Amino acid sequence: MSKNEIVRKNLDLHAEWIRYIFEHPEVLDKIPQGAQLVILPNNDPALAKENNKTIGRLKAEGLPVVIVHLDLPKPPRPQIEVITANS
Q: What InterPro entries does this protein map onto (predicted)?
């Protein structure tokens, strides 16, 4: 998995996390101040493996880590309808 793909997928996960905390702001009270948040996707084993490496590095540095398990969102499949003046 390329670094760009890891970054893109993690950005998608973080967008889902932000949506979740807007709906459930009380969850933020469970996160210790100064903790590092790492999201492990339930439905992408390759990305979970990469993010687990990050968890290992953070723990080795002695930093508190909060792990969130979340599904990587599926890309939307929009239906596009074109309406012309003659329709």
A: DUF5647
5: tokens are 């793909």
Using the CB atoms, write b or e for 39-77: b if 16+ within 10 Å.
bbbeebeebeebbeebeeebeeeeeebeebebebeeeee
User: Mean pLDDT, 10 residues at a time, over the chain (87 residues)?
Assistant: 94 93 94 94 96 97 95 75 79
pTM: 0.78
Instruction: For residue 47, give every residue at least 6 positions away whose Cβ sits within 8 Å of its Cβ, in sequence order, or none.
Output: 1, 6, 9, 10, 13, 41, 72
